[in-house]
Amino acid sequence: MSVLTLQNISKSYGKIQALNNLSFDIPQGCVFGVLGPNGSGKTTLLSIILDVLKADAGNFLWFGSPGSPEQRKKIGSLLETPNFYHYLSAVNNLKITHTISGRGNMAGIDGVLQKVKLFERKDSRFSTYSLGMKQRLAIAAALLGDPQVLVLDEPTNGLDPVGIAEIRELIIELSKKGHTIIMASHLLDEVEKVCTHVAIIKRGQLITTGPVEDVLAAEDTVEISAASLDALATAMNSYGKGSKLVKDGIYLQVSLPKGSASLDDINNYCFNKGIVLNHLVFKKKRLEAKFFELTNN
Amino acid sequence: MFNIARTEWLKIKKYPAFWWVMGITALTYPGINYMFIGIYNNITEQQSSSGQIVKALIGNPFSFPEAWRTVAYISSLFVFIPAIVIILLITNEYNYKTNRQNIIDGWSRTEFMIGKLIDVLILSAIVTALYAVVALVIGIVNTTNAEADKWKLVYYIGLFSLQTFSQLSIAFMVGLLIRKSFIALAVFAFYFIMVEPISVNLLKYKYKNEIGEFFPLEISHRLLPKPAFIGRINEEAYQASLKAVNAHIFYTLILVLITWAFCFWINNRRDL
Q: Fewest CB atoms within 10 A around its CB: which of A211, B25, B181, B224?
């Protein structure tokens, strides 16, 4: 079952087309990463599904029904920046989150503040917090009442490396408990570590979407090397089978259609051409490389 | 509804600016009335013939029942002080982006606006209560005639509350439209103190045109006619201002409805 279904969502700001006919599904229980370069429309998309912005065209369904305040109450969300009353403490800000959403209770407020390591400063005004602490409070607000669906826009913004690792662990833990997490992030390494599904958008258009393994494994990559890289490249030019070659330092990257790479076959082919390989590795493509490739950056 | 009011109270109760402005209002309303009483006493306590003539001519505007009207008129000139809080309460939401967070957390846009309507209603009630207490105390202290009808003009509490609510609603609309605290405060203060009074009087006295009575603040300003002793200077104008009150109750109610309908409409339409 889909937690969220997007149907032909379009949004423009004057002449700028922020989102163009975007459609995809987000399955229940997944960690779904929305990726894209700056200005690609990630935050606009999350703002529309949270009813902060109105789409010019198209619609979206939460659990098969049109978006509504009652549904938003059940979703823990962090959108763009931590938005709190500057003159109130963490506890009083979370009381407001509680009275509006109905999520959590006083014990729950203490619990989420402990989880994000803000309990010691729970009575300090929001205006006295550092950027990282503000971000932690926003995550605490999203976690209040243990919602089944979380929407997190750049959740690691402003966090130190330890904080980033903690949020990563938290997301993995929530995912294991069956929560659905929809997150937008620039940190591709982080996304690759936690996300099960991704959608990559560029200038408001969907480039690709699906399980991370499928998106990354659109083709096989084999990394090879020999004493003479030029001789190796010349030999591999006639390998065929739809291969593409890219020199990468002392290695040659050989891209082949998905499922067609055979290390034995490449090794045998080179040997028959009089070249002895000193490096032969089947490389899993990194999300970062795939992202750059798809977005032409 | 109770939950919305409770949430608004959580926002307000620890907001320092709210308590500062409430404190200033609580000092200003009795303070400014006592200042006028002081001026009146200074003139009428003179043993000279001019002092006694003034006393005979205007009576005591601070004794019952006239105290209700006089204090209402004087106090109403300072509604821009509580208007500061109203403007801050809405512009803060934009400044901190908490208006969008309230929606994200599960309020509808209509519920958000109902919360703000409750703020304006509560503040209007507090200011009205303050006026009523000040008028009551001043009336009791200054009434020497035991047969004076203490409650004859007590309905001015209702007129004062309607005027306050109407003018605070306009202040709210200015904050909602401009969204930036200091610009909204400056625009409202400039309009309240300069633009409208000058425009209304210019139209009235230079161009002999009464269209000024339909200006946003003037509509409710005419709910509270000038104190009765002014009528002794121009009896005809004074009687006309008394007769116009009923019509202006109607105009003010219409204006309040239009103001809030516009606020709800614009908040529902625009992106946050």
A: A211
Instruction: Establish if A72 touches chain B: CB-CB under 8 angstroms.
Output: yes
Tokens of A24: 């995809």
Using a CB-CB distance cutoff of 8 angstroms, which residues of chain B are in contact with residue A69?
Answer: 103, 106-108, 111
At B4, list the tokens: 């919305």
Domains of chain A: 2-215 (3.40.50.300), 218-295 (3.30.70.980)
Query: B23 with B31: CB under 8 angstroms?
Result: no
A156 at the B interface (CB within 8 A)?
no
Contact A50 B102 (CB under 8 A): no
Nearest by CB: A83 against B98, B111, B271:
B98
Q: Contact at 8 Å (CB) between B159 and B204?
A: no
Which of A63-77, A168-182, A275-289, B97-111 bottoms out in mean pLDDT, i.e. has the lowest? A275-289
Instruction: Please give the residue that has the higher pLDDT: either A179 or B43.
Output: A179
Q: Rounded CA gap, B244 and B222, in Å?
A: 7
Pick from A53, A92, A99: CB nearest B271: A53
Question: Are the beta carbons of B98 and A101 separated by less than 8 Å?
Answer: no
Domain ranges of chain B: 2-29+51-269
Nearest CA to CA, how far is A157 from chain B (Å)? Answer: 17
- pTM score: 0.83
Percent of chain A with pLDDT over 70: 96
Q: Do B96 and A97 touch (CB under 8 A)?
A: no
- Band the pLDDT of A61: cuts 50, 70, 90: very high
Mean pLDDT rounded to a whole number for chain A = 88
Q: At B9, list the tokens.
A: 């109270």
For B62, half-sphere exposure in the C-beta direction (CA atoms, 13 angstrom radius) is 21
CB contact under 8 A, B108 and A69: yes
Mean pLDDT of chain B: 90
Q: Closest-CA residue in chain A for B89?
A: A85
The Cα A209–Cα A191 span in angstroms is: 14
The answer to whether B220 and B167 are in contact (CB under 8 A) is yes
Are B38 and B101 spatial neighbours (Cβ–Cβ below 8 Å)?
Answer: no
The tokens describing A25, both together, are 């599904």
- Rounded distance, CA B265 to CA B169, Å? 15
Cβ of B100 and A79 within 8 Å?
Answer: yes
Q: Parallel, antiparallel, or unpaired: how do β-strands A31-35 and A197-202 relate?
A: parallel
Cβ–Cβ of B10/A72 closer than 8 Å?
Answer: no
**ipTM, two decimals:** 0.87
- Alpha carbon of A93 to those of A96, A124, A155, B8, B179: distances in Å? 5, 11, 19, 12, 22
- Please check the confidence at residue A297 and state whether its pLDDT lies above 60: no
Average pLDDT over residues A249-257: 86
Q: Provide the shortest C-alpha distance from residue A188 to chain B (in Å).
A: 26
Tell me the one-letter amino acid at B175: G
The pLDDT confidence band at residue B149, using thresholds 50, 70 and 90, is confident
Alpha carbon A213 to its chain centroid, in Å, reads 13
CB spacing of A73 vs B105 below 8 angstroms: yes
Instruction: Name residues 179-238 of chain A within 8 A of B (Cβ).
Output: none
